[in-house]
Amino acid sequence: MPSFDIVSEVEMNEVRNAVENANRELATRYDFRGVEASFELNDNKVKLAADAELQLQQMRDMLRGALIKRGIDVRVLDAGSIVRSGKRHVQEMSFLQGIDSALAKKLVKKIKDSKIKVQASIQGEQLRVTGKKRDDLQQVMAMLRAEEQEQPLQFNNFRD
């Protein structure tokens, strides 16, 4: 019976490259000369540190631009609150991995409401869609791609 999985993953190698590119851009920008500002990547989180809140905002824009250049959808970014300690401003930005249960239930409901003859089941942080015909599965993929989701979705593990 044909099936495929719906997942939401971020390629951390591309994120690492984007953070390195953003650090290089930070070193060459004139408005950041003499400012202690940096990007640090550890445990699926990017830590932005700068002297002022305005600089943090510019750094977020730099990071988003670097992620877009590397082909990563910026909807996976989850910005944390800005923490001030002395003259340093620090913000952590994490990456959403996997499909949370609310979005999974919403996707299952959309698939069932479409009246396509497939079954969708939630398996942890991914959805498994099975059906009798490959065309039905491709129809589900096309439907989900056409609709704007709050998180980017990938389709993998397609089996016949």
From TrEMBL:
This is Nucleotide-binding protein B6S08_15340. GO terms for cellular component: cytosol. Keywords: Nucleotide-binding. PANTHER family: UPF0234 PROTEIN YAJQ. The keyword Zinc does not apply. It comes from the Bacteria. NCBIfam families: PRK05412.1 (NF003819). It comes from Oceanimonas doudoroffii. Nucleotide-binding protein. HAMAP family: UPF0234. One of its GO terms (molecular function) is nucleotide binding. Belongs to the YajQ family. SUPFAM superfamilies: YajQ-like. The keyword Nucleotide-binding applies.
